[in-house]
């Protein structure tokens, strides 16, 4: 991520938090910064470890969990239930809401790609769930697989 993109994302997150009545403290900025810079989904403990690396102060994992909860409420980050890890919203700087995110999660390198299905696809999924006897379904969908880079690496290894 370029420095301009990083600053844009951090500024947009700060605006969202302030609009939501949440102060953007030094620790909150630090947690979000770790997620923005990460190319993979991270657990709260991994985030705490990265925040504490080379730092004089110690941020406990429980503090990180509380901060992550605040960021989730503001739609700044997403929790991936399948991996019990967190990622920064890929569209944090957009002016419109994204309430129907889907995630492609690489089981090899842990890279996460946030995608959006059409309203028709989401409705088809919800209808299929209803037909199966589910009264409600979140449009949040997580698909575990292998990213293109890992797929290419696997192909090169298999051909060696």
Class inferred from helices and paired strands: alpha+beta
The CATH superfamily title of the largest domain: Winged helix-like DNA-binding domain superfamily/Winged helix DNA-binding domain
- What number of domains? 2
User: What does the radius of gyration come to?
Assistant: 18 Å
Order of helices and strands: HHHHEEEEHEH
Largest sheet: 3 strands, mixed
Give the name of the CATH architecture of the largest domain: Orthogonal Bundle
Percentage of residues in helical conformation: 40-55%
DSSP helical segment count: 6
The overall pLDDT average reads 85
Q: Which topology of the largest domain does CATH recognise?
A: Arc Repressor Mutant, subunit A
- Terminal Cα span: 33 Å
CATH uppermost class of the largest domain = Mainly Alpha
- Based on DSSP secondary structure assignment, what is the total number of beta strands? 5
Query: If strands are numbered along the chain, what order do they take across the biggest sheet?
Result: 4-3-5
Oligomer: single chain
Ranges where pLDDT stays below 50 over 5 or more residues in a row are: none
Strand percentage: 15-25%
């Amino acid at each position: 991520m370029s420095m301009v993109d990083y600053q844009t994302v951090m500024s947009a997150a700060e605006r969202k938090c302030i609009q939501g009545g949440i102060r953007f403290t030094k620790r909150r900025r630090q947690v979000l910064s770790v997620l923005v810079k990460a190319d993979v989904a991270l657990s709260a403990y991994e985030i705490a470890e990265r925040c504490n690396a080379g730092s004089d102060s110690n941020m406990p994992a429980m503090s990180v969990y509380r901060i992550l909860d605040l960021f989730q409420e503001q739609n700044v980050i997403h929790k991936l239930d399948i991996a019990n890890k967190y990622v920064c919203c890929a569209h944090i700087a957009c002016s419109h809401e994204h309430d129907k995110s889907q995630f492609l999660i690489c089981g090899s390198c842990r890279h996460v790609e946030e995608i959006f299905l059409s309203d028709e696809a989401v409705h088809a999924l919800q209808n299929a769930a209803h037909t199966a006897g589910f009264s409600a379904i979140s449009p949040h969908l997580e698909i575990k697989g292998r990213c293109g880079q890992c797929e290419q690496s696997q192909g090169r290894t298999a051909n060696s």
